[in-house]
Write a structure and sequence with these properties.
Blueprint: E1 3-4, E2 7-8, H1 9-28, H2 35-61, H3 63-66, H4 83-97, H5 104-132, E3 139-142, E4 147-149, E5 158-163, H6 168-183, E6 188-194, H7 198-208, E7 215-218, H8 222-227, E8 234-238, E9 244-249, H9 254-264
Parallel strand pairs: 5-6, 6-7
Antiparallel strand pairs: 1-2, 3-4, 3-7, 5-8, 8-9
InterPro entries: AhpC/TSA, Lgt, Thioredoxin-like_sf, Thioredoxin_CS, Thioredoxin_domain, Thioredoxin_ResA/DsbE_sf
Pfam families: AhpC-TSA, LGT
Main location: other
């Protein structure tokens, strides 16, 4: 998974895009009457409102998935943004705000530069991720101690969840993943425990009364190394050809998981 330390690069790319937009707006505006400061402030406000607008549109579109867990709506790091809505909100705010109080042309050109950087950078990252990460051809161990090659799941979409019983977010999201496994039989699920002994995993599953299928053991955390995962939990989404379609670092909400699964089908 392409990341910079614990941070997904798409999130960092968005921050860099906002900085580029701010630089362009200030650079193109005149210094007279505080024009540069006003242009930069409008760009930052437009960016923040665009993020909120993108989130709100996504939540409204998938309202049914958010109703069982309304608090997940405010977990912005969970993912789930309607890019088209964010761009529309940012542009509308910029047009309104620059009607009289700020230089319009520098602001709009700055936002356009930032959006272009984000779009091109995002497509490049997606292409690099798809070309560099495929379903690892390794054998883990099942709960009976037998080899369990991941290649056995080739030919259909696959969700690979990297987790550990000591990881709080992993424990919180596990019931959501187990429920999704039962509700989406056409999609394979693998729960690859990282670095723990069989007895610890079995004790956790008994204590939580969970019985997911395809619990596999990865005592040396090879999957984290091969996929470049930087933290737990990490969930990887592979298409039927074994190519990575998406990755989520951190706890998954039901709404975000359902959206990812729809993309795989």
């Amino acid at each position: 998974m392409i990341s910079a330390g614990p941070f997904p690069l798409m999130a960092l790319l968005g921050l860099v895009a906002a900085f580029i937009a701010w630089l362009f707006a200030r650079g193109l505006a005149t210094a007279a009457d505080g024009g540069r400061s006003r242009a930069g402030a409008v760009v930052i406000d437009a960016f923040l409102l665009g993020v909120l607008g993108a989130r709100a549109a996504h939540v409204l579109r998938h309202a049914g998935d958010y109703l069982p867990d309304p608090m997940s709506i405010i977990r912005l790091g969970d993912g789930g943004y309607a890019v088209w809505a964010g761009l529309a909100v940012a542009a509308a705010y910029a047009l309104w705000r620059t009607w009289r109080h700020a230089p319009r042309k520098p602001v709009l050109l700055g936002l356009a530069a930032g959006a272009a950087f984000w779009a091109v950078g995002g497509m490049a990252l997606f292409a690099l991720q798809r070309s560099s990460i495929v379903l690892p051809d390794i054998a883990l161990t099942d709960m009976q101690g037998d080899p369990a090659p991941l290649s056995a799941h080739a030919g259909r979409p696959l969700v690979v969840n990297l987790w550990a019983s000591w990881c709080g977010p992993c424990r919180r999201e596990m019931p959501t993943l187990v429920r999704a496994q039962a509700e989406h039989p056409r999609i394979g699920f693998v729960f690859a425990n990282q670095g723990e002994e069989l007895a610890d995993v079995a004790a956790y599953l008994r204590a939580e009364a969970l019985a997911p299928g395809n619990i596999l053991l990865d005592p040396e955390s090879e999957l984290m190394r091969l996929t470049g995962a930087r933290a737990l939990p990490t969930t990887l989404f592979f298409d039927a050809d074994g190519r990575l379609r998406g990755a989520h670092m951190g706890e998954l909400s039901r709404a975000t998981l359902e959206a990812r699964l729809r993309e795989l089908q």
